[in-house]
Amino acid sequence: MSGFTRSPDPSLQLRQQYLESLEEPQEFFLEELVGLGQFWTHDDGSYAVTHGKTLVEFFSPNPKNSTSLLLHLHDQDGYSTALVKSYDLDLVRSCKELGWIASVGGFLFRKRETRTRTAFHNVEMSAATPVDVDPLWEVNDDFFARQAEITSLAETGKLWTVRVDGEITGCGVSNRFIEDSDAVDVGMMVAPSLRRRGLGTHIVSEIANRVESAGLRPICGCGASNTASKATLEKAGFVSEHQLLSFTV
């Protein structure tokens, strides 16, 4: 079987075919890595994306070839980890056939059972403006990797500034990153001084309620070690039935 070839761009048609093959929407964290990754293509129509030493996406229109193709790509690229959504059933099967060991790297929330309303006094939420970028960066605590992310989200109408008693104390995000999907990735950031008081639950609930009122579907995710975020999302009505699996190659 022939090997993979580095490719500057993905086949949009193949990526669309892959995304449509999934029973649940794409994970935003992986979508970010895909955007920064190295693309590989195969003559049989398969493709893969690696980011550093991590495989972040793989699709073959002929699933029976997936296991051998993963080995061929490993010989070429030398990736040591594969991040796989638990509902990417073909890739999960191939990883297990190769004897790779899985651990839970994150929780993926694709269901919301209850539409909650939370009460947090003197809180206001409004569409972010350019003047909010610097104050949001000041209260940022590893939620945003770069200040430019805040600017981009504000410019595209995906960011909500949260104020308590008139002071900026966090933000909410509603990111519909795949236009033809009804899925909207939601998230929140709270200043360290106001954590563990219910503000995070309030923000996520409000954002999710607005998304649902628009006839769309809120989704989200968090790292497996981030127990505080997991609890916040669950209090906002989200249920995790899927995981982001980390396979050691």
From TrEMBL:
Signal peptide: none
Pfam families per UniProt: Acetyltransf_1 (PF00583)
Keyword terms of this UniProt record: Transferase
Residues annotated as domain N-acetyltransferase: 123-249
Transmembrane segments: none
The UniProt record lists the keyword Glycoprotein: no
Domain of life: Bacteria
Cited Gene3D superfamilies: 3.40.630.30
Any GO molecular function: acyltransferase activity, transferring groups other than amino-acyl groups
InterPro entries: Acyl_CoA_acyltransferase, GNAT_dom
Protein name per UniProt: Protein N-acetyltransferase, RimJ/RimL family
